[in-house]
Specification:
heterodimer, A: 291 residues, alpha/beta, Rossmann fold, 2 domains, eight-stranded mixed sheet, 35% helix, B: 178 residues, mainly alpha, Ferritin, 5 helices, binds iron/sulfur cluster
């Protein structure tokens, strides 16, 4: 592992973002550059995996190795990378649609396996890339291209979702407080296990009025200011119930005693099974038969 | 004293060195944000606003260099205690000020809001400042922001009137492609 003194600009790629001017994702990107410079891992030691969506374009705007995968499938691919190359810093990003509708089934399993991954969801409560359809986090009643008379569904609560599956690190931020978001992302990356950050990132083109940056600035409240103890999972769950009603920023939950990660348990088992991993033995046997 | 745009920094207790470093970083933040805006406009076929934002970015850079030279003259390479993480959106236009197909008038109005914001930052800081040298510096910076407002207003007076139909009504809405 190389620790180097890098500034935020060292993580900025040549590719210019094509997000709509004013999109919240621009602030998220700046916060990420800052967080990565705080971590100090060289870009070539970072694998940045995303799904599909406006937000999923983010790896391309960094100098890390990026993999813009398939809609909803960023987490399984990131888990594979982490298992094969545990020494890499693996980041995962995507939208609320990518993470909680088509990819929703993967979240629970990534959480319960506890890979050392940082999952950043840019939650704009809408499908941005495909031009403004209902997303799983859209509020009840929202009128969109696919719900002209208003949505009849209640939204998924991403915070309660990951907390209930036992994620060791759960936080929320907004680019309306970009320096605060950078700190949260850095803390999430430093957590040794599955870390989830719900980033309320306004979509200026299709998002609701109440979800814009100015409203965030006026209403956001840090969890520290309400006296929240981030090691108290039940208190975190209680505060998470306010998703969609209040905009809390900061760390909801941080497991004070992080359990071993999945990749560490796999390595342990491989060691216990002998010098050479069983996979190689199987391959040897196959090759012997084939020749 | 903390302000809405700073954190971890007691503005009322700033030394001249820290105040100069803060001023340099405020200009740097504005320079970077205007440049980001210019690039966003270029990407979304809004060339006039892009040109204006680039011009603003170059101006902020000029101010940054002037302040950095003063800092260097007075304090050489003494360590810098103020970081970008301690300030946010002081003079830089807020992220959501940018819009695809914005007119030059809208771009100027956005810059005016930023100059007003910066002036009120220095005005409220001045109210609590104790060190006379820092008061002098912030008084000067406040006056500069007021002068910038005058310049932007003069440009606004000359800017073409808004078209009857806003360009964003005619163009396809911006969207990312995948
Ligand atoms: C398998 C598959 N189904 C559907 C799509 C179409 N599609 C692309 S992005 C997207 C949703 C985008 O919303 P979100 O994930 O919230 O990201 P955002 O664009 O808002 O950042 C959909 C439905 C696709 N690309 N692939
Ligand atoms: S459609 Fe929305 S989410 Fe997508 S780039 Fe534009 S503002 Fe951002």
């Amino acid at each position: 592992m190389t620790t180097v003194a890098l500034g935020p600009k060292d993580f900025k790629s040549e590719l210019k973002p094509i997000w709509c001017p004013g999109c919240g994702d621009f602030g998220v990107l700046q916060a990420l550059y800052r967080a990565l410079s705080g971590i100090g891992r060289a870009p070539h030691e970072i694998a940045f995996v995303s799904g599909i969506g406006c937000s999923s374009r983010i790896p391309g705007y960094t100098t890390a190795y990026g993999f813009n995968t398939v809609h909803g499938r960023a987490l399984p691919i990131a888990q594979g990378i982490k298992l094969a190359r545990p020494e890499l810093l693996v980041l995962v990003a995507g939208g609320d649609g990518d993470g909680f509708s088509i990819g929703g089934g993967h979240v629970a399993h990534a959480v319960r396996r506890n890979f050392d991954l940082t999952y950043l969801v840019m939650d704009n409560q809408i499908y941005g890339l495909t031009k403004g359809q209902l997303s799983p986090t859209s509020p009840h009643g929202l009128e969109t291209a696919t719900s002209p008379y208003g949505s009849l569904e209640d939204p998924v609560n991403p915070l309660a979702y990951v907390l209930s599956y036992g994620a060791g690190f759960v936080a929320q931020g907004t680019p309306a407080d970009m320096p605060g978001l950078a700190k949260i992302v850095e803390e999430a990356i430093r957590y040794p296990g599955f870390a989830f950050v719900n980033i309320q990132s306004p979509c200026v083109t299709y998002g609701q009025e109440v979800q814009q940056m100015k409203v965030h600035k006026a209403t956001m409240k840090t969890l520290a200011s309400v006296g929240h103890d981030q090691t108290d999972r039940i208190a975190a769950m209680r505060l998470a119930q306010d998703y969609g009603k209040a905009l809390y920023t900061g760390v909801f939950y941080r497991n004070p005693e992080p359990p071993p990660t999945f990749e560490a348990l796999v390595r342990e088992r491989q060691t216990a099974q002998g010098e050479r991993p069983a996979r190689e033995k199987i391959l040897d046997r196959y090759l012997q038969r084939a020749t | 004293m903390m302000t809405a745009n700073t954190s971890g920094l007691d503005v009322s207790a700033l030394t001249l060195r820290d105040a100069l470093d803060l001023a340099v970083l405020i200009e740097e933040e504005a320079r970077d944000r205007y440049l980001e805006f210019a690039e966003q406009m270029e990407m979304h076929r809004t060339p006039e606003a892009a040109r204006f934002f680039r011009f603003m970015s170059e101006n902020e850079e000029k101010h940054r260099v002037e302040l950095a030279e003063r800092r260097e003259k007075h304090f050489g390479d003494a360590p810098v205690n103020v970081t970008r993480a301690m300030l946010f959106d002081v003079e830089a236009p807020e992220y959501d000020e940018a819009r695809a197909f914005m007119t030059v008038r809208e771009a100027l109005e956005s810059a005016l809001r930023s100059e007003e914001k910066a002036a009120s930052f220095f005005a409220s800081a001045l109210a609590g400042l104790r060190d006379p040298d820092v008061r002098g510096l912030f008084g000067e910076l406040h006056a500069e922001e007021i002068e910038h407002q005058r310049l932007v207003r003069a440009q606004l007076a000359k800017a073409p009137a808004e078209p009857l139909v806003h360009p964003s009504e005619i163009a396809d809405e911006p969207h990312a492609i995948d």
